[in-house]
Specification:
Length: about 375
Amino acid sequence: MIARVYFDYNATAPLRPEARAAMLDALAAVGNASSVHAEGREARRRIEVARNAVARLVGGDPKLVTFTSGGTEANDTVLTPDWQLHGERSVFGALLVGATEHVSVLSGGRFPPERVRPIPVDGNGVVKVEALAELLANGERALVSVMLANNETGVIQPVAEVARLAHAAGAMVHCDAIQAAERVPVDIASLGVDALTLSAHKIGGPQGAGAIVRAREDFTFTPLMRGGGQEKRLRGGTENVAAIAGFGAAAEAAGADLANAQGWAVWRDRLAAIIRAGGPPATVFGEGADRLPQTLCIGLDGIAAETLLIALDLAGVAVSSGSACSSGKVAPSHVLAAMDVPSRHAKSAIRLSLGWESKESDLHFFASAWQHVLKHVAPRHQAA
C-alpha cells in the first residue's frame, strides 16, 4: 500500500476507535429509544450517555442538547425567524451573519434572502464589531450568527464581544462552533451565546450526527424537522442511535485533545515554513489573527490550488482548497473574497489541517513530498 498522509481534518476527521466501538455496540442492539420496554430503554440510555458527553465538551447542560443529522441541519434549525422566548413567540426581523461564515449559515436558514445581512470582516477575516454595531442600531430585532473559528482559515472570532454587543441591542446570538470544538476551549457560558452548533465528524465521530446546544431553557426554536415527540419535540424523527453513540464517544475523547493544541500549533507553523522554503512567494491567510492551532490556509503566488491539490495527492498527501461543502468550485473562496484577498492569490489557496491522529513523522513525509511537488509544478508556473 502506498504511504499517505492525511491533512484534511477540517473536512472530516478519521473515525476514532472509541466512536467506532460505540457505534458497533449500538448497531448490534435492537430497540427504539421511544419504546418503554427494556430494549427501548437501553437505546435511550445510549443517547443520554452521548448527550452528557457532548454537553461536557462545551460546558453545556445535557437537558439543552438537541441531536440532529449534522452541522448543516443544526444551523438551518437555529437560523429561523421564529423563536419562543419565555413561552411567547418572538420574531426576528433580520439575520446578521459574518461574511466568512460556512455556507450553511450564509444561506440564511429559514430567513428570506432579503432579511439576511452580512457583517464585514477585516483583512485577517475577523468580523468588524463596529460594523455589527451599525447594523444593530436600526432598531430591528435581529438574530446574530458568528462562527467561533473559520473552517478555511482557522481564524478565531471575538464571539464573546459580539454576544455582549448583540444582547445590549436586544438581539439573540448563535455561534457555529463546529470547527472549534476539540481544537480550542469552548464554553457556552463564557462565550455568552444563546445557542451553538456542533458536528460529530469534525472531532472524530461519524458523519451524519450533529447537535444544537442552548444556553437556557427559557427559549426554544421552531423545529425544522416535524413529526413525533423526539428530542423534546425540537427534532422529529427516530434518533440515529448508533451515530449519536459515536458522537458521544468522540466528544468524550476529544476533550482530552485540548492538551495537544500547543503541539499542533508548532506543527502548523513548521508546515508553513516548509512551504515557504525554496518555492514561490507564499501567503498565510489570516496570519495576523488568532487562529486554530491545527489549521493552515496558504497560497503560492502564481500556482493554482487545483494544480497543487492534484500534485500533492499523487505524492501521497491529502489537503483541500477550502470548505469540503464547496469542492469542485472554480471561483475563489468566498472567505478570502470577504477578506479582500486579490483573486490571483485566492485562487492559489490550499488548506492543511491536523488532528487527533496526526504525528510528527507526517511532517517529514510532507517535506519530502513538497520538494517533489515543487520540482514538477513550480518551474512551469515560474517560467510562465
